Amino acid sequence: VSDRDRWEVVTVDVDGPIEDVPTGGASVLHVTVTAGGRPVGVVPVPVAGSTCPGWYLREVVVAALGWELWSHRLRGLVAGPDGGGPPPDAAATVLVCTADRPASLDRCLASIGRLACPPADVVVVDNSREAVERTRAVVEAHGARYVREPLGGLDRARNAGLRAVSTPLVLCTDDDVEVEPGWAAALIRGFDDPLVMAVTGLVLPASLATGALRRAERFTGHVRGFTRRVVDGAWSSGMHAGGLGSGASMAWRADFARAAGGFPDELDAGTPTRSGGDHYLLREVLRRGYRVLYEPAAVARHWHRDSDEAMLAAVRGYGTGLGSLLLHAIRVDRDREAVAEGVPALARYYGSRVTEVVTGDRWARRAALAELAGATGAFRAHAASVVASSRRGRPERDDLGPMPAPWLDRLARDVAPRSPDALPALSVVIPTRGRRERVLRLLRAIDEQHYPDDRLEVVVVVDGDVDGTATALADSPLRRRPAVVVLDAPGRDAGAGNGAGYARARGLERVTGEVVLFLDDDVVPLHHEVLAAHAGRHLEHLRGGGRPLLCVGPLPVDHRSGAGLLEQRMRNWWVEHGVRVEETEVLPFTAVCSGNLSAPAAFVRRVGGMSAMARREDWELGYRAVAAGAEVVSEHDAAVVHDLDVGLANALGDRRREGQGDVAFLTAHPSSLAQLTLSRWFDLERRSRWLAEQVLARPGLADTVLRIGVPAAGVLEGTGRRVQHGRLVNRLSFVAYWRGVGDAAGGERGITSLLAGAVAVRGAPLDVQLGDLATFAPVDGASGGEVRVWLADRLLAVVPLHRGDIPWSSATFADRVRGEVAWAALVAAGATGSVR
Amino acid sequence: VIHLLELELSEAEPTLAAVTGHAWVLVRHHGRPVGDAWVWIAPDRSARVAEDLVERFAVTRFARGAVTAAPRGATAVAPDAVSVVVCTRDRPAFLEGCLKALAALAPAPAEVLVVDNAPSTTATAEVVERFGVRRVVEPVPGLDHARNRGWREARGEVVAFVDDDARPESSFVAMVAEGFVGERVGAVTGLVVPAELLFGAQAAFERIEGGMGKGYAPRLFGPGEAAVGLEPFRLGVGTNMAFRREALDVIGGFDPILDVGTRTRGGGDIDALWRTLRAGYAVFYQPAAVVRHVHRRERARPGGADAGLRHLVRGVGSSCGPGSRPGRRRRCGANACAGTWPAMCAGPSARCGARTCSSCAWPWPRPGAASGAGRP
Fold first, then answer.
1. Which of A45, A416, B59, B287 gives B191 a disulfide partner, CB atoms 3.0 to 4.6 angstroms apart?
2. Is the pTM of this model over 0.80?
3. In what helix (H) or strand (E) does residue A440 lie, and over which residues does it extend?
């Protein structure tokens, strides 16, 4: 604790027995505790001698990190080990920016050379003024690529690096950092989620030998905790960016970083603003509604500078950088959120600094004062930096390029061409209403599909020809001319026509092929093999073997959509949903989506054809099909991209129809309760329950709320209140859903009696051992019910298997299990010792 | 009556003895104490109480099961290098209990030495003779006189002190030896738990005043901590402390003006531990070295010995530092310390001998002072 003490940084893994650790004469060991290579926490251990006995370390670790160790173990039990896995195959470049620190750079590059998963390329951007030759020599000695950026400024250097990078991923670190061997693999693995645009890692101190180093760690340290977490920009404020990591260890999708305009030249080290570039771009990820992942398994070690002056200067720089970052966001991006949330947050933060000046100890006071001093200089520094940047002239910047669309890329990759000879006769049924241009676009795309013409039939069902679709179809020069069915009946609702379900049912009557494929009218096939992929999936059944399949193709949305908050959220939902569907082997009927669905036509007719319900007609078909022995599967090669143009009012109307559809569905199939959003009725928390009851009791009031809510949400969005907007939209969507339920079920009494009837026919519970959850696929399609989670012979918890309309996914389910069994499993695990 | 029970967490189904009423439970894992609990056990409900306790200690139980240490090699100090010194004064009944416990130690210490302090009868000598251990007489009354005689007479490399009303557990010596986790550890203190809770005063002392335990987490106090406002009463208590002889030599032993038998009535143990720390040694608190202590059975009179001790450890309105080597004492006229105690201002060295206590090694935070950081 005293300044004279020498601290030593060591790592101890608790998967094996803890050995005695030589102390090297230090008086405190700063122990990084890892379990299976994944950091769990750090704990300082005072020592007094040449070795520190293992038993003593164990006592300290157990006392300090007991709960963390348990959470780590539980996560491993529930979702499989998340630190390991094979090294990912995505190509990545390591980017190091350096300025006049050849010795330090040498150490950094040496550690990069020791990476367990060697990067495709290592690029060093040299921003030096003096040590240019020495730096070049060091870079060449390590076989890395040397890029010279003569204009000073860390962000300029980073941008120069981004231009030099040719791989999809770029892993950034600083020249005063040493990375650990698992660093690259952990960062790269974070990009498995297509919505993640940036992954940040854990940065631990490389040395704490002196008092100055410890103070540097205390006031400028980069540790952001030991829990992996994802921040989704569609739901959370961009103000979280600073808590997510630092430039010393972060990875980007290179396309994103380029498309977002790169790092702002006037921020960060080497300019008067002195920091903030890394956080600016993280903020940009969140602002565009994408995700940032903080991955503590990616460990880098930072060499702080061993002087208090340097520490205070760095803290001062943080003060300047934080203010400059906001100024940049407001000045350049006209970011309303920065005004609405950033400025108050900054004010609160500096308020806390002032408190620190009054109450803190000597060093805390000095650091807080330095930060405040830096903050007061932010305006001046920002202005100076902008002027300097513009005087030097902006460096040549490439065209910003498109936003990456990893989900689309993944779906378009590895598509195997199908042999045309074996394909069955395929009928495509497309219901449409009032979307002439889109349906024409789809038909033109179908013209280009690789499919034998003699075995392909297209049926377009025009549900009330409101915009001349039928004529346009007849006039357009299509190679594969569709059969057009026009439904003239006014339908149940003059505005909405007969509904897509009814249109599909009518289309199915006309179908002559062996396989029927339902497509929505606002989709476009991702590539030329979509029809063949669908049809090929049913060959086995058509030839007399295998179960009939309902084949669901992915319905990705374009990643690049998402200007508004609602679109960002819908986009994320669709991407996430698609990933989940693709990852699950056997799908429940709730994964059936008639926007891109194929099935053997004879089988569909046998189970009663397409239902004419307004919503949930796809689930209805799925339910009957599964009950008749079919399997729901997803086909990677059958992706169609669909448009995402939603207004809040439309979305709420949709939600309301879902409520109606759920009631109709439940009335028809009472045993499906567990899979329906309706089942949430039983465990709504008190306030939500009250709200739902009010909606059911006073439909008029609910309608008023929905009417007022839409413009109110617009106001929130316009003023940059991202989080509040999300909350309001959730609430409105909740109201709309229960409003729909009320429509169909006739108030609260109706709904309770309906649910009571459904509960009686709930499916039987499934049993699973806690350690087997990762491989557990408890979906038999039709039955719902609960999962009983066991540890050895102890029953830990009963977890509802489905909740709402989202298909079961191991991640969501695991999260729920983790929440519900944590304590019971801990008690049981301590007893049996079976969980090691 | 409060029952004293134990719960062993490493068992598959930990159980409590079947008793009814209030109980104080010492919770262990593979013999190491990890916590305690006050419980009330309804008739035939001890199994249920045990389950509750297991749940309460679930994190500890899991973590201790999941993290293991390699079997330890040779410790820095061997158990047979430990001498146990018992200081007693005319309390043969207590002493007998203590010696009985010492006889059961496994592994056995190098020697057990009884210091008979200013005996007025031969009763102590007779008890000692029955147990066949060594006895030396210290004619000057005062616990610290007796302790000084004890460690100077003892032969072991390490001298462990227990009081005559203490009953060490059988693993005591092994755990004390283990507690010397490094060469620079000068003293090891251990956990003190009640040997009986039969009287209101004992229960009140344990429950309301916190007893003598210092918690269940091992802790190493480095010499650097002396400078930053460590509260010295956290170091340990005199009924369960062991010193390296070498450290005692350096600090010059215990201060005879302190502790039971003098007007100060307490504080000699903490003073010695504190000075050990100041002399550049580390002090290790080893809760696995367990001593059961018979708390005093009657309420402390105002100004009684333990009242004096608490007075000292809380630093309430008393003196400045319990520093002092004989001959280096200065009367300190400054601050609140004047008069109340035989004032001791000097630190362990001559360094602050001439200063007033506001600048000397006052170890406790004064009321209102933030932390004392940065003081010498």
1. B287
2. yes
3. helix A436-447
Q: Which two tokens stand for residue A176?
A: 């005063």
A821: its two tokens: 């069994």
Tell me how far apart the terminal alpha carbons of chain B are, to the nearest angstrom: 48
Of A4, A49, A57, the CB nearest to B185: A49
At A644, list the tokens: 């995402």
Residues of B in contact with A361 (CB under 8 A): 370-371, 373
pLDDT in tens, A44-93: 999 998 999 999 999 999 999 999 998 888 887 776 555 455 556 678 99
Give Cα A497 to chain centroid, integer Å: 37
Which of B 100-159 lie inside 8 A of A, CB atoms?
A: none
CB-nearest partner of B60 from A48, A52, A66: A66
| E strands in A152-280 | 169-174, 177-179, 196-205, 229-232, 249-253
Q: What is the ipTM of this complex?
A: 0.83
Q: What angle do CA A635, A636, A639 make, to 5 degrees?
A: 95
The answer, for A62 touching chain B at a CB cutoff of 8 Å, is yes
Cα–Cα nearest to A578, from A597, A552, A603: A552
Q: Position of tokens 């460990």?
A: A299
CA distance B274 to B258: 14
Instruction: Return the amino acid letter for A371.
Output: E
Residue type, B227: A
* Closest of B222, B246, B253, B247 to residue B235, by C-alpha: B222
The two structure tokens encoding residue B357? 């206590």
Q: Are B358 and B334 in contact (CB under 8 A)?
A: yes
Answer whether A677's CB lies under 8 Å from A787's CB: no
| pLDDT tens figures, A490-544 | 555 556 677 888 889 989 998 999 999 999 988 999 999 999 999 999 999 998 8
Are residues A45 and A28 in contact, defined by beta-carbon separation less than 8 angstroms?
yes
**Hey, what amino acid is at A205?**
P
* A281 in Cβ contact with A252 (< 8 Å): yes
Q: Where are the beta strands (DSSP E) in A303-353?
A: none
Note which residues in 76-105 of chain A have CB less than 8 A from chain B.
Answer: none
Residue pair B265/B238 in contact (Cβ under 8 Å)? The answer is: no
B282–A46 C-beta distance less than 8 A:
yes
What is the SS3 string spanning B91-113? Answer: CHHHHHHHHHHHHCCCCCCCEEE
Asked if the C-beta of A750 comes within 8 angstroms of chain B's C-beta atoms, the answer is: no
CA A416/CA A582 separation, integer angstroms: 17
Q: B220 to chain A nearest CA, in Å? A: 6
* A244 confidence band (pLDDT: 50, 70, 90): confident
Residue type, A611: S
Q: Report strand pairing: B166-168 vs B134-138.
A: unpaired
CA-closest candidate to residue A245, choices A284, A296, A290, A184: A296
Structure tokens at B33: 């104490």
Distance CA B279, CA B226 (A): 10
Retrieve residue A118's tokens. Answer: 């060697």
Q: Which of A114, A111, A121, A112 is nearest to A90 (CA)?
A: A121
Q: With 0-12 CB in 10 A as exposed, 13-18 as middle and 19+ as buried, what is A603?
A: buried
How many other C-beta atoms can be found within 10 angstroms of the C-beta atom of residue B15?
Answer: 14
Give the separation between CA A267 and CA A280, rounded to whole angstroms: 9
B37 Cβ neighbours under 8 A, 6+ residues apart: B24, B25, B27, B53, B56
- Report in angstroms the alpha-carbon separations of A804 from A225, A589, A625: 33, 12, 20
**CA gap A26, A210 in Å, rounded:** 10
Q: Which residues of B touch A58 (CB under 8 A)?
A: 67-69
3-state secondary structure of A413: coil
Contact B89, B146 (CB under 8 A): yes
